[in-house]
Amino acid sequence: MNKEKILVTAALPYANGPIHLGHLAGAYLPADIFVRYNRLKGNDILFVCGSDEHGVPITITADKEGLKPKDIIDRFHTINKDSFDKFGMSFDIYSRTSLSIHHETGKDFFLEFHKQGLLKEKKTLQFYDEKANMFLPDRYVEGTCPNCGNESARSDECETCGALYEPSALKNPLSKISGNTPILKETSHWFFPLGKFQERLEAYIKEMDEKFHWKENVLQYCRSWFKEGLQDRAVTRDLDWGIPVPLDDAKGKVLYVWFEAVLGYISAAKELSEKRGEKDLWKNYWQDPNTKYIAFIGKDNVVFHTIFFPAMLMAWNDGREDKYVLPQNVPANEFYNFEGKKFSKSRNWGIDVIDFLKAFPADPLRYTLAANLPEMRDTDFHWKEFQARNNNELSAILGNFINRTFTFVFKNFEGKVPPQYSLEEIDKEMIALLESYPAKISLLFENYKIKDGVLEIMNLARAANKYFNDAEPWKTVKSDKEKCSTTLHICLQTIFTLAELIEPIIPNSSQKIFSMLNARPVAWDLCGNQQLATGHQLNNFE
To answer: pLDDT at residue 347 above 80?
Structure first.
């Protein structure tokens, strides 16, 4: 079977606060399960992520705390990287957009588009705080939405109703810096002609959907943007925190975060190339037309990864020989809430990953999230579900089967894999089930039905417990030792299969089970075959 080359990106978390459980369920755990599965399949994977470290929320936080933006990003980059490490994320690199290699990448794209004549300089009206003597980016202004009446709308968009509008349409605007009413003042910015790419973007998404079956929720987001008609979009803003616009007449302007943050996936791969001393490593993924690029995100990032970023890559590719691959699929998840309500820092609702993992190990959390991922609709974390999944499934089903089998083998077969003798129908059915499972789970994982895959693996553990009960080895050990031996032989082979199937979901538990088996994982497609030889010595367990 040919190895696939797969580039996987997970949305860059914003370095303005700690990641919470909703972030994990939205983009990161699905990506990690997909990556771990593909590594077991033997595919060639590059998995990148990193901190998104520019933009207005960071400067606002810094202003509030009397600190510099760099103090804020350093704090939360460290916290979030530590959270991901403890959660078991298997990134090849976790980068950050404040690095010089990212600044260079952002400037390269801007200058390429400028050289092509794509970028147009336009004069616009923007809110200006006369007391603070500065232009006010969107989050520095709050007012009443002209569409729905929300009184905490930003200068150019409303998070409540999703409306986009000109700053002049905002009612009762107030500066968050001084509390004064800002004036509208003329400023110049460079715009990317998104509308120029609409037909190509529609054709690209149609082709990818026909070939690779995009999620309906993702397609609906795209259709709504296309229906409105794509407009020119500013790629610069008046701010002193970010990547400076690389033009002589652009003093005091930086690249807009929407434009440069997605390029963090590319600069992260470049950083990895430097660290490994392999100059062209990043090109082997980003610029190989055979690369399968999958972008894992939450639904609030759909437009950036299905429209904005692909348009930027198309624009680059139009003028260059070194062409980038576009996403083959963008399996965005819906929102994951906390006890029926959205996670909210301001309302102190929810729990951060770093705090959760101080109290509980990672695997029960990974399993609980994976079994209830918001793949097609919003779902929730409930403490009762976390307890039930841990006690009733991981312990009572999976753990119980392993414990019963090992206890029996050490008591009656000296801790060695007993021989398999003649097979009865019950044995043949269990062996056939094992052999079918790797392909069954592959089909689900490769179609981004991670949750269904997780539930099916637990169903195999249920079937294993039923097999153990129906075979009644506690009776046959006295009446028919060969039949008992066959039962335990098949149970141990089942444990091996389960240990491999659960590795993408609960890697620490998988590692522990393989240690008990005194074995290592094999190629995914082979794990349903009988891998443990008769007489193989198991490790004693506590």
So the answer is: no
